[in-house]
Amino acid sequence: MNTRILQGGVLALLAGLSWSGLLEAEEHAEEALRHAEQAARSSGDSAAIREHADAALNHLEAAKTTKHANPKALQHLDHGETDLNDAVLHARRFNSQSAADEAGDASRHLELAQQPAEVNHDR
Fold first, then answer.
1. Which of 7, 13, 56, 77 allows an S-S link to 35, with CB 3.0 to 4.6 Å?
2. 53: closest CA among 93, 100, 108?
3. Residue-level pLDDT at 26
4. Domain assignment present for 85
């Protein structure tokens, strides 16, 4: 009897930790999107684009840890990561328009990654 109670408690704790991890990953995905959008709106300011794109990349890495259950979402996160890396590269070269365009592309992918699996379409 005590073993069953203990097992139930352990399972409840693990479920709670798992749910907490999912919420944290969603928060990171939202922050990555917010920073990518801010980078896209910062055309003409290479330093701001690089700052926001770097912040988005940091949040994106954390978000990717639990999106593996949805392959389409993970695919969009990967594309968004590529676009953000390109945005940083362009911003380092002071090509702010190309950097902002790449950040905009990243924003679209990050937005698609947050949609439910049945709604998530390729673009």
1. 56
2. 100
3. 85
4. yes
